[in-house]
Amino acid sequence: MTTTNTLSFGLAALLSVAAWLAPAPEAQEPVAGPAPQLQAGLEQAFAEQGLRIDLEAGLCSIPVEVCMRDDLLEYLMVSDFGATHESLFSTKVTPSVWNTALVALGAEPARGGRFVEKEPLPTDAEFEAGVSPYEVELPAGTPFYFYALWHEGDELRLHRVEDLIGNLRTGRSMERHALRYVGSRMVRADPEKEDEVYLPDMEGNLISVYFFQNDKEIVTTALEDATYDTIWIANTWLVPERGTPVQLITSRKLLDGVPEALKELVAR
């Protein structure tokens, strides 16, 4: 997809969202939500881009495949042209399209995680006891919960993504939590030209596990251990084989099972 087409799609989708989110004129009765045909049109527009979005349920699903199972991870999801050598999942969906879907679900941009070394540093004993050497500012953007859905034989498997990532420092899986929306930013691809592009569309990195402190990602984890870039690894006890098709679900609330509308999306 070209940058022009991506931006045109994003603008059209956002205008549609804005149309039903905008307050009704005072002379009219307030509306409870989007007109059904407008909502259906928006959901169809995303479907044509490879995404399934359910505005009422507050969730969307993006097709990915298992990427890295046997090395350290710095990303949860990248594009197929991104840092695939250090990401659990990769996708062919254009990053700005997925970002537009998150905005349609209510995401608002915020700064990502930050950290600086403590002064003085913890003692060796404190460090061995698990005290962090950093003062950490956790990201405070819109919270989302992430799930991975795939077929294992005839059985559907649904897992919190945190359960699929091991923490070598603690010897357990990643702590369950709501990941946070950052939004990334626009940049000049060519310093000599004024035209700007959406950074993830250029670099292909969508969800970070580590705090890169540069707000390049669209979504990030929100844990103090995200200050470490050498402790995250795929939980191969749960993660299927490399290349396995998976649906990565983003939800505004915790799920208590597989959403019916998403069951048919998962390849057997």
Count of structural domains? 1
How many DSSP-defined strands? 17
Q: Which overall shape is indicated by the principal axes computed on the Cα atoms?
A: globular
Helix content: 10-25%
Radius of gyration: 20 Å
Q: N-to-C terminal Cα separation, in Å?
A: 27 Å
Overall mean pLDDT stands at 85
Count every helix, treating DSSP H or I runs of 4 or more residues as helices: 5
Which spans have pLDDT < 50 for at least 5 consecutive residues? 1-11, 18-32
Classification by helices and strands: alpha+beta
Q: Note the run of SSEs as H and E.
A: HHEEEEHEHEEEEEEEEHEEEE
The proportion of residues in beta strands is: 25-35%
Main sheet makeup: 8 strands, mixed, barrel
How would you portray this structure in words?
- The protein has 268 residues and is an alpha+beta fold.
- It has one domain (57-265).
- The chain is 19% helix and 28% strand.
- The protein has five helices and 17 strands.
- It has helices at 3-21, 36-48, 95-104, 124-128, 199-203, and strands spanning 52-54, 59-66, 75-79, 87-91, 114-117, 134-137, 143-152, 155-160, 165-167, 172-173, 179-181, 186-188, 196-198, 205-208, 219-220, 232-234, 245-251.
- The chain has an eight-stranded mixed barrel. Strands 10-9-16 form a three-stranded antiparallel beta sheet, with no helix packed on it.
- A hairpin with a 7-residue loop joins strand 12 (186-188) and strand 13.
- Helix 1 packs parallel to helix 3 (95-104).
- The chain is globular and about 60 Å long.
- The relative contact order is 0.20.
- Residues 1-11 and 18-32 have low confidence and may be disordered.
